[in-house]
Design goal:
Creatine Amidinohydrolase; alpha+beta; 4-stranded antiparallel beta sheet; globular
Length: 254
């Protein structure tokens, strides 16, 4: 397995990409409201990304037709924006976005409630977010990749939620997807040893019911098999000599 160690210059470019992506998510979150279409979100997201002189990572990536993955309710990831899909009060929506800044990627996802949502939906969103923070407690030089994965699974399952097995996080840098894969569930092997300069997209995908998912006929949209809600939370993370640096999370720091 070839995992790239980023140079100081590469890290600086990824740091800038992450700042722009963080601002993109902040601006999108403020715009969300009932009555918006998922196409509106994608159109606005692409405008924001390009306003910073960046290119959307996802647009035309392996044929994906949009800049922002917009996944509603039981859609786990890779929802395709549509003028016909209207957000309604009580929906939850996951926005997954990436930017390319001077040849380097950042990748981040957030799940939001639209208007008033049920307590159960709110808990799923918050637990999914916290799964990420539980995982990155172990994102330190000298630890192993599986330390992150096991911590995410353990936290999600405390609440009876299902951890998606069919999709995982990934390395990131000059390519959107690099080695290694970053599962959100424990592996039999400890995985690679983490080293300073590694950059990882860590992204818990958590279902309100079982972990099982299916792909829709569009070959992109992934939904929960049992129709339960799903939430997604992701940041691009830099392994350092000390605490991990969250490249795509500028203001919402914990």
């Amino acid at each position: 397995m070839s995992v790239t160690i980023k140079s100081a210059r590469e890290i600086e470019l990824m740091r800038e990409a992450g700042k722009i992506l963080s601002k993109t998510h902040e601006e999108l979150s403020k715009a969300l409201k009932p009555g918006m279409t998922t196409w509106d979100i994608d159109h606005l997201g692409e405008e924001i990304i390009r306003s910073y002189g960046c290119t959307p990572s996802f647009l035309n990536y392996n044929g994906y037709p949009a800049s922002i993955c917009v996944s509603v309710n039981d859609e786990v990831v890779h929802g395709i924006p549509s003028r016909k899909r209207v957000l309604r009060e009580g929906d939850i929506v996951s926005l997954d976005a990436g930017v390319i800044y001077k040849g380097y990627h950042s990748d981040a996802a957030r799940t939001y409630g639209i208007g008033e949502i049920t307590p159960e939906a709110g808990q799923l969103i918050e637990v999914t977010r916290q799964c990420f923070f539980e995982g990155i407690k172990f994102a330190k030089s000298g630890n192993h990749l599986n330390d992150i994965s096991a911590a995410i699974q353990k936290y999600a399952e405390k609440f009876g939620f299902g951890v998606v097995r069919d999709l995982v996080g990934h390395g990131i840098g000059s390519r959107l997807h690099e080695e290694p894969e970053v599962p959100n569930f424990a592996q039999k092997r400890r995985g690679i040893k983490l080293r300073p300069g590694m950059t990882l997209a860590i992204e818990p995908m958590i279902n309100g019911g079982t972990p099982d998912v299916v792909w829709l006929d569009d070959d992109w949209t992934v939904v929960t098999e049992d129709g339960s809600l799903s939430a997604h939370y992701e940041n691009t993370v830099l392994i350092t000599e000390g605490e991990p640096e969250l490249l795509s999370l500028v203001s919402d720091v914990r």
